[in-house]
Amino acid sequence: MTARLPALLADPAPSERRLWLTGGRLFDGTGSAVRERASVLVEGGRIARVAEGETAAPEGVETIDLAGATLMPGLTDAHAHVGVSFPTPSIEHGAEPLLPGTPAHFLAAELRRALQMGITTMRDVGSYGDLVVEARQAMRYGAFQGPRLLTCGRIVSPTAPGGRFFAGMYREADGVDDVRRAVREQIRYGADFVKVMTTGARSVELEDPGPAQLTRDELHVLVEEAHRLGYRTCAHCEGLAGTELAVEAGIDTIEHGMYLNQRPDLLEQMAANGQVLVPTLSFLHYTAREGEWTPLLTDLGRHNVEQAQLTVAAAHAAGVRLAMGFDYEPLHEAANELLRMIEAGLPARDALVAATSGGAYALGIDAHVGTIEEDKAADLLAIDGDPLTEPAAVCDPARIRLVLRLGAPV
Ligand SMILES: [Zn+2]
User: How many Å lie between the centroid of ligand 1 and the Cα of residue 167?
Assistant: First the structure.
């Protein structure tokens, strides 16, 4: 299903500039081969025309020469904790403590930076307080430019230790009526989709990621309520019991899902149903880092990295659609996840598809963004060189030639 569109409604007014992007290679995000010489006409914030070969510029346009660069769709980070993963200053003893409104300015600065890195869409899968909807509104009304933001509002979770560890990020709900109400509350709040914890988290020592945390009935009601109202669903899934419930209930995107390589039948179902996997390798690598977590969690982290890498390869082989989700900080470095997926065996072209059209599909906005095709929004990124042979270029600010957000150069 396509998503309801509060996030697109929150887009700023598109640029009125007419741009002719020419002379570069074109990776259109669909997965088809790179076109060596192509030109793109941008009008009214949209892609008005994609032309092959040597074509004269239309009358009255601004020409942007992309010789030596590759033009591609803007990137989507499908798994970000937007209101959490931005740097704030560490305050020295005796210095003035942060005022309540100051972090919002740091978030705005980080979102600007993320957009400068070509991340034109970001899906917030859980934050504290109202920072994310406030930033979304500020961008809509023109305060600053950043990626298009979609948010889940609060994460719906059964009563669990995580509710204590991440107090304020969860809406704990138990029983079908409470779950239904929790879904409606998120929509009331302005959420673009609904997220649920089907299992515990590997970042919480008191949680066992093994068993499903909620009942089949609770999960089915959550999906039914969200889908009936036109909203997509996203599930935190670690252990296979919860992952299986999520696949069966028709959850649209499975987050983490690192043990899926052990269940080819579930991968097959996901591929058949068009359910997306967001592997979030970057955060898993972080949980495996010595000295950051309790020994129990570090051990689990190491195991999870191995499993998640196997799962990326198995999901790809099974034809499951993948989306790039960083799940780590700072937000503007999200394209590092692309390299992690390649490291796990995903061909560079497929990793780039996951970061562009895969993300748009995961968010249910693929009719609007994610590929370079006529009538799509002109959210575009041009990289010096060829990201298919040199994917690290996507992570290098010095290699970013151009970013457009709804046709406006950033
Ligand atoms: Zn996460």
Answer: 15
| CA–centroid distance for 335 within its chain | 10
CB of 66 within 8 A of CB of 382? yes
Give the Å distance between the CA of 43 and the centre of ligand 1. 36
Report residue 54 as tokens: 């040597």
CA of 125 to the centre of ligand 1 (A): 6
- Centre of ligand 1 to C-alpha 337, Å, is 13
Q: Ligand 1 centre and the CA of 26: distance in Å? A: 32
**260 Cα to the center of ligand 1, angstroms:** 17
The Å distance, Cα 253 to ligand 1 centre, comes to 13
Per-residue pLDDT of the chain (410 residues; tens, 9 = 90+): 665 556 677 788 898 899 999 999 999 999 998 999 899 999 999 999 999 877 888 999 999 999 999 999 999 999 999 999 999 999 999 999 999 999 999 999 999 999 999 999 999 999 999 999 999 999 999 999 999 999 999 999 999 999 999 989 999 999 999 999 999 999 999 999 999 999 998 888 888 888 999 999 999 999 999 999 999 999 999 999 999 999 999 999 999 999 999 999 999 999 999 999 999 999 999 988 888 888 888 888 999 999 999 999 999 999 999 999 999 999 999 999 999 999 999 999 999 999 999 999 999 999 999 999 999 999 999 999 999 999 999 999 999 999 999 999 99
- Please give the distance, rounded to the nearest whole angstrom, from the Cα atom of residue 79 to the centre of ligand 1: 6
Residue 211 to residues 160, 199, 242, 275: CA-CA distances in angstroms?
Answer: 12, 6, 6, 21
pTM: 0.96
* Å from CA of 284 to ligand 1 middle: 10
Could you tell me the distance, in angstroms and rounded to a whole number, from the CA of residue 317 to the centre of ligand 1?
Answer: 25
238 and 268 Cβ atoms separated by less than 8 Å: no
Closest alpha carbon to 76 in 291, 293, 331: 331
